[in-house]
Amino acid sequence: MTTIAKKIGGPRALILAVAAGGALAYKGGEVGVKAVVRTSRSIRRTLDARAEAAAKSRVYRVAEDADAGGGLTLRTGDEFRVLARDDDAILIEIVGSTKNPWYVSGELLAAISDFTL
Fold this sequence. Notes:
Layout: H1 2-8, H2 11-56, E1 59-61, E2 66-69, E3 72-74, E4 79-86, E5 89-94, E6 102-105, H3 106-112
Antiparallel strand pairs: 1-4, 2-3, 4-5, 5-6
């Protein structure tokens, strides 16, 4: 410590340098944490809004059994919501399932349910 104090101009300069460094680190950390909290709140609001919109979206009912591929078998009476669509690829949520979401062919959904393309 004495060697460092000699190099920067004495013990007073060392104390001021340590205090200034501590204050800078503290403020920098505070600003960083506030930015992370602000961003996480924004992301959470966005996700909550999407979940609410999905919960309010129309529910379709499956009229006949079908193998949708990828391990998904749709049964008569199953209900699903459309979350997103890209041409014929439809992202759906099966109501009451814990293994959501699923990509399914739009043509298949139109053939076996009240969903229309």
